[in-house]
From TrEMBL:
PANTHER family to which the protein is assigned, alphabetical: PHOSPHOSERINE PHOSPHATASE
Active site: D78 (nucleophile), D80 (proton donor)
Pfam family, one: DUF4072
Species annotation: Caballeronia fortuita
InterPro entries, A to Z: DUF4072, HAD-like_SerB, HAD-like_sf, HAD_sf, PSP
Protein name: Phosphoserine phosphatase
Lineage, top ranks: Bacteria, Pseudomonadati, Pseudomonadota, Betaproteobacteria, Burkholderiales
Length: 279
């Protein structure tokens, strides 16, 4: 395997020798200031590489030497804390003075401590009952920010011929705006019920949980005529794990430990455009 080391800042030459030794690679190659490739690296050395990279704010990934981005047909992304930096439901709750309470439930759910995502989402949405729907627009306009490298990543995957899917346990109010803004191909999310300009505290239709995320990835792959192994899935929380397991390559982005442990690779420090720089 090739071992690709990345950093958001310049990688010092002092890292090359210890990384090569830990990886059992005799061919370290500096690609550019922020990227190093180690040829014929031993994947069994992953625990040592993980410890070294974690201590030095480096990201790493083991890849087939022949892998190309154009080998894939779809990139499927979670929204909250992946494509964007916030958890939208936490920010909505801030407008009714309940951010801390809702954020605690969100965090526990994303760490996998609350096993029933449907119950977790239902509890959180119920706390929003009576809130003026204008709060959604304020969250989008005032608080929603794209994660570092998001637009560059999307430009790069489109240039390589991949389709894009935003699949979220969050809300269509945000996914549809991001679809239009970023030129995404497909989206799937939950619909908040709004009556007379107020949130009712309920979600309309099927809740997009871990099973629905995985099913959406499979269905989208079938729609565009590729196998799930030709999909890349990116996420940060436990409700992304089933979707990520279906994909041929899974990326944990600034993710919870349970997700980092299960993913093909993790970006803890670099931006989403680190995906382009792997190949």
């Amino acid at each position: 395997m090739n071992l690709v080391i990345q950093s958001p800042s310049a990688i010092s030459d002092t890292h090359l020798r210890p990384l090569a030794a830990l990886a059992r690679s005799k061919q370290p190659q500096r690609v550019d200031d922020t990227r190093v490739r180690l040829i014929d690296a031993d994947p069994l050395q992953r625990p040592d590489i993980d410890a070294y990279c974690g201590a030095h704010t480096l990201d790493y990934a083991y890849l087939d030497p022949d892998a190309k981005l154009s080998d894939f047909g779809l990139v499927a992304m979670d929204m909250d804390s992946t494509l964007i930096t916030i958890e939208c439901i936490d920010e909505i709750a801030d407008f009714c003075g309940l951010k801390a309470e809702v954020a605690a439930i969100t965090e526990a759910s994303m760490r996998g401590e609350i096993k029933d995502f449907n119950e977790s989402l239902t509890r959180r949405v119920a706390l929003l009952e009576g809130l003026d729907a204008s709060a959604l627009e304020r969250v989008y306009e005032e608080r929603l920010q794209l994660s570092p490298g998001a637009e560059r990543m999307l430009e790069g995957v489109r240039a390589a011929g991949l389709k894009t899917l935003l699949v979220s346990g969050g809300f269509t109010f945000f996914t549809e705006r991001l679809k239009a803004r970023l030129g995404l191909d497909y989206t799937r999310a939950n619909t908040l019920e709004i009556v007379d300009g107020k949130l009712t505290g309920r979600v309309v239709g099927e809740i997009v949980n871990a099973n629905v995320k995985a099913r959406t990835l499979i269905e989208t792959c079938a729609r565009i005529g590729v196998e799930p192994k030709c999909a890349i899935a990116m996420g940060d929380g436990s409700n992304d794990l089933k979707m990520m397991a279906e994909a041929g390559l899974s990326v944990a982005f600034r993710a919870k430990p349970v997700v980092r442990e299960s993913a093909s690779l993790a970006f803890n420090f670099v931006g989403l455009d680190g995906l382009l720089r792997l190949f």
